[in-house]
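Forwarding the complex inputs:
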Amino acid sequence: MNLIEARKLYARSVELLKENQHPKGGFYASPPGTRYPYVYPRDHSVIVLGALSADLIKEAKLGLQFILEAQKPNGEFSQRYDVEGVDRSYKELQIDSTGLVLFAVGKYHERTGDDAFVADYWDKIEKSVNFILHNKNDEIDLIHTINSIHEYPAYEHGFEIYANSACCAGILRAVKMGKSVGKGREVAEWEKEAKKVRESILTRLWSAFLRSFIKTIRIKSNDSKPLGYDPFSSVVTDPDASEYAPAYFELIKDSDWRVISTVKRLDEELWDANLGGLNRYPEYWDRNNGGYGPWPHFTAQLVRHFVNTEDRDMAEKYLGWCVEIAHNHELPEHISTLMNFFIWEENYKRVGILRDDKVRLVEQIKKHEKWEEGLAYSVVPLLWPHAEYICRYNEYERKYL
Amino acid sequence: MIKEETPALSFIVGMIELHNLFGSESLYEWVKKIGERIAEVEGKGIEGKKINDVHYLPICPLAASYHFASNYEVLSKSGETPYANLEELQKEQTAEDAALGSILCVMHHAYRKKRAELADKRIFHLAARSHLTNEPVFNEKAIERCGKRKEEIEKILDFGACIFNYEPD
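Prediction (whole assembly, two chains):
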């Protein structure tokens, strides 16, 4: 890995976090004028984690204040907000965002010991935990969702692993914070429920046959009783980068053989043969906006596993790939070969679903300097991979440099 | 068996029955109240994509979710019409009210209006495409109130199903 470039990418990543925080606290998912000029709680929470890793404590706190104030009356965090904290969603429930906000608040508290902050926002924390538990199914002890990390109900509607891991970790963090501010008795039930969810993730969302965590137990309605009679009832076992979530959210150690085996499968099946880097899911899922190809934030996530399992070669391979594909030290959402880009564009055009925002995406991809080199760069810069990179670079540096 | 379509069909039948029992005005108030109550659960929010200085939705999510046109056709074939006297309701229309693509616009507008109010904004529903015939339907008082021209709004209906204006923008 080119360490000089790696450090420059780190420095630029920190700058980008600062540049893309609105004065009211929200972090843009991508800068104004690009594809995602809104505050997405999922991205926002990961960016807060990046800010904490980069010692931007004041920025992280402001970011958390912003997002907690934007909470909906029922305790949910929406798909996205504008910089005033007004809901601007156009997609349905994505409960992982609610879990992620709690997780990020917990990480902030762990880092700063700021009990006053937790006490100030306790009613919001409580509401979010109750919202998550309201969506817990007691037959299977998992949390039901419509969308998760890919915002793709076809593969995520039901009991999905990333959403469940984020929500379970979020509640466990809330329990920890509650105990710290004298709410031990109040959080005892939450802890019991979260432990049930963790146990269910580690058993129901684990395939002994595949030796891997799996993506989703598809269930249409959380109210289907029993679940076996639900019209969607089926299982998605395909490799998906989100299957690393139980370890990412610290529900299980990276050294656990189940995580090692899952990551091995992801590396074997999702590492891109042409471009390197990790794809988010298999190409045949056929929802490959901007062309099928690898994503730096999923690639960076696995650096955490390789650092924690002391596999320096793999950590360097994954982190080094992010450094290599950064353009002017800025990371895209994902990259694609021209062939894959044209396959996607042709497919969507032919069937008439290349809607206006995707037409703009096409224009931006074709205008990007990398186009002339034969690469389709989608959404540059995206803040999420920069935040992941900050976290992972710091972990790598602490261990190896 | 209860089919996938049954809940949506039931709601439309419910509107027809309520109309038959109590008339268009009661139906209007009922669906408006539904929109407001749901908005209170959702909290503040803004909808749509912006073009020039108005917002629009490329599809009507309620008409799609209720399969309004196809369910209404099914009911019409079995003799169930009308569901509301839109022309009558239109006579009473103010700038604050919904443009009536169908009675569902009343519910949607009430929902959007309440959520806009919670975000310290006002909203005016300028136009929609009819959920049954796809013809343009305007709220001319709202268009005038917002200082727009009907022609410019009609152009947006070429690709939008519903057009509205927030104040402040």
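The two ends of chain B are 48 Å apart (CA to CA).
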